[in-house]
Design brief:
The chain has a domain of 98 residues: Roll (Pnp Oxidase, Chain A), CATH 2.30.110. The protein contains one helix and nine strands; from the N terminus they run ββββββαβββ. The chain has a seven-stranded antiparallel beta sheet with strand order 2-1-7-8-9-6-3, with helices on one face. A two-stranded antiparallel sheet has the order 4-5. The longest helix is centred in the middle third of the chain and has 9 residues. 11% of the residues are buried. The model has no long low-confidence stretch (mean pLDDT 87). This is Phage tail protein. Pfam families: Phage_T4_gp19 (PF06841).
Length: 145
């Protein structure tokens, strides 16, 4: 008997490429907050003391934080944030998890993206470190694949 071994693509050494309405914001080294939660409402039934009913009500999406070393793509993020002051509309976007050699492992489509916060580097000559930036975005759901 011969066994066929299938190579499994894993997320080791991943970078995250972010695009907003097709505009590439560059790649990031970390991505936190991708997720969804079903908000539950608890209802207690009169006369039934053994359990309470848990009813799903809505979906809740946490903000996503992307971090990377400071670089030339910082200007793209600054431009996106400055567009908010000029009358901003919600946008769609994607986050692509890629291996170091550029193969896409997974893609998440996001709807109604709004920039929330940008944090720049901390300059301290006493403890030199890699300068990083963080971008926090809010969204209102995942797009169907």
């Amino acid at each position: 008997m011969s066994e066929v071994l299938q190579e499994v693509e894993t997320g080791v050494g991943v970078r995250y490429v972010v695009k907003i309405d097709g505009v590439d914001l560059g790649s990031f080294s970390s991505c936190t907050g991708l997720g969804v939660e079903v908000v539950m409402e608890v209802r207690e039934e009169g006369g039934n003391n053994t359990n309470a009913w848990q009813l799903p009500t809505r979906l809740k999406y946490p903000n996503i934080t992307l971090t990377r070393p400071l670089g030339k793509d910082t200007s793209k993020v600054a431009e996106w944030f400055s567009s908010v002051a000029k009358g901003y509309k919600r946008r769609t976007g994607t986050i692509e998890a890629m291996t170091v050699d550029g193969r896409i492992i997974a893609t998440w489509g996001l709807t109604d993206i709004v920039p929330v916060r940008w944090s720049g580097p901390t300059f301290n000559s006493d403890s030199p470190a890699i300068l990083t930036e963080s971008v926090e975005i809010a969204h209102h759901g995942f797009l169907a694949p």
